[in-house]
Fold each of these.
Amino acid sequence: MIKRRIRDKLDESIDHSPAVGLLGPRQVGKTTLALEIGATRPSLYLDLESPADRAKLADAGRYLAEHEDELVILDEVHRAPEIFQILRGLIDQGRRRGKAGGRFLLLGSASVELLKQSGESLAGRISYLELTPFDATEVDGDRMDRLWIRGGFPASFLAANDRISLDWREDFIRTYLERDVPQFGSRIPAETLRRFWTMLAHHQAGMHNAATLAQGLGVDGKTVARYLDLLVDLLLVRRLSPWHRNVGKRLVKSPKVFVRDSGLVHALLGLGNKEQLLGHPVVGPSWESFVLETLLVLAPRGTEANFYRTAAGAEIDLVLTLPGGKLWAVEIKRSSAPKLERGFHLACADLKPAKRFVVYPGDDRFPLDAKTEVLGLAELGKRLQALK
């Protein structure tokens, strides 16, 4: 078993909040982690995709009140949005009796429905955590390439070989398109959404160009925006916003868009092993996105993430505005002997970051110049974690 980085924080949140929402895409390990926690305390697990468990909630208020002294784990809670109003009443009743925490652990396969419902009825009563696929701080350093190539979904990363891993990811993509997306009320043809998802993979870490995507799909720009919003809400795609503060320069205004799990990128493009990936044009953008996603999920809460690019060519791959306002500039290189372009130095002159880093595939740390340090992904990830 690989211990999940979020485990201790999840335990703490459960102890101090009446309800905790654990969000993440399917098959990321939410149920496994919840059952591990449930085994350490009195608990009740209900899978809201199970007709038998749904039947137990025919009179949900009465049934859940009988389990007030247990941690009630509700899996796939977006399947029963009507339950949020009931949870609100139970939480308020429990608070009046001195039960401030440890009541409900809600597991959701996406943010879209869970956040919408809880925003209406559980405001001030719930805290949220996101469980992502495995990241660079959760696996051994000698398995970093495997993590990049296969992605971090447990069944894919831990598969016996690359072929089984790729088969799993292709099945995962098919299931999401044919089964999960319709559950969220989205009437989008599976084949159309797959084409859109694949187009995003081809343009991994590129500037979002709605007009080009719309032309390729034969739809309008508003439809492309709806497709993109859906994949973002399903926690499968990320938009990285451009730097927007006034620095007296002409700044790029379009976001960067990338599929969050590198293994899904490679599956969408039919790349099953390292040799195939190294021979494909997506290899550079794939590595960049892999690093970006890892750093974004490890950054302290309240961190603002952007990229910086001017019309004149000044550019930084990732600018992190940390709590307190300090800036970290991060450049991402796949070379074992990284070099910085002039555009990075120009961008740093504009923003004056407190620290400058170059992330590369190696493990050694060394200064590139008087202000810039070169280091591996896991090491920078650990430094971000240390800030929490």
Amino acid sequence: MVSIEKLSDLQKFFRSCGSAAIAFSGGVDSTFLLKVAHDELGEKVLAVSALSPLFPKRERDEAVDFCKKEGIRHLYFQIDPLEIPGFKQNPENRCYICKKEIFSKIRSLAFENGISAVCDGSNADDTGDYRPGMQAIRELGIKSPLLECGFTKKDIRELSKIMGLLTWNRPSAACLASRFVYGETITENKLKMVENAEDFLHEKGFLQLRVRIHGENLARIEVNKEDFEKILKDKEKIINYFRSLGFVYTTLDIQGFRSGSMNETMTAK
């Protein structure tokens, strides 16, 4: 059942802010957050997006299109996380290093444009996994209104559907760096290999998926278990395309898709 009370609390939150900048990726959470903020505050809302090799081009294009359609002021900036000291070595606090840099820039752009509050799309379900990036958000004074108002991903999807947002049933997304084993060096070439591999599978109709990269040449595909048969049916095309990208080995993870599976390497130590 949809929580109208939570939505009312979120609307009150934005009215109390007076103006707000939303860190906007174009995903389920940030699209819903931006829509509610814009409905409440109109031109006093600013969407800010980071353009980075960590985010697939298709997601960047969708974010730009949404803001144009809704008439929302949208700023975006280029950032290369591989140039941030310590990031490409891929330590366990990689997300902290990246979020600190990105949200510092978002906060600066917001203040330069006279915006009082900077918000991200973290929700109540984000507290159940290892997420060092949330520490950076707290340190910078970034607000997480969906989390503060108790929204779960289910709440967000249900209300997004009612509001007519096309993102209501979009699969959960994460930056491409999450496809790497901690401690394995992140390179631009391997990021592009992962992006192209996932784009290929999306074009074949697979929705919820990840292509994890291990070493220089092994791809581990995660899809929902009900898609196993389809993956195996298309295996020759998938193997050949992945090989053209540089993957010598292509594997299917028989545990199926699960968010944050690379964090399992931490508990396995």
